[in-house]
Amino acid sequence: MRAATFIFFILLCQAVGLLGARWTAPEIAGWYRGLRKPAFNPPSWIFGPVWTLLYVLMAIAAWRVTQLPASMARTIALALFAIQLALNLFWTWIFFRCHRIAAALIELVFLWLAIAATTVGFAILDPLAAWLMAPYLAWTAFATLLNAAIRRLNN
Q: From CA 19, how far away is CA 16, in angstroms rounded?
């Protein structure tokens, strides 16, 4: 059962990443390349490896929490995890598929708050799970700054 749950979370998180990549890839060569970007914008090739790693880390974090005894705190933390994962996917849709840079920025703020709440919820239950979420929280903060800069430059 432990292995099946672990595999489930790995597959779930990677599926979110793959679906997002399907929405993103067609937009890179045209729409995204045509946007003005800040000097601190990373090269496009970096996003795939970073997100793959972040999805693995968050899957491990969620899996660790599922291995703890059932409790209201665990239920809330896992519900927050599901919410942030859905918001993660939704940002890709808004930004890359809909080309709504300002709306994506607003959504990113809610995503960051959901990740922070998930991280706090995980910290109460399993500090290591919270630390596994920390790079994702940091990357999303960076993504928020990047999204804001792209919005400013392409107003």
A: 5
CA distances for 146 relative to 14, 51, 101, 140, 142, angstroms: 23, 15, 11, 9, 6
* CATH code for the domain of 22: 1.20.1260.100
Instruction: Name the pTM for this structure.
Output: 0.94
Domain limits for position 55:
2-153
- How far apart CA 92 and CA 101 sit, in angstroms, is 11
Tokens read off for 126: 């399993």
Q: How far apart are CA 102 and CA 37, in angstroms?
A: 14
Residue 66 has a CB neighbour count (10 Å cut-off) of 18
- How far apart, in whole angstroms, are the C-alpha atoms of residue 154 and residue 70? 48
- Model pLDDT for residues 94-138, shown as the tens digit of each residue: 999 999 999 999 999 999 999 999 999 999 999 999 999 999 999
Q: What is the pLDDT of residue 155?
A: 85
Which residue spans within 74-150 are E strands per DSSP?
none
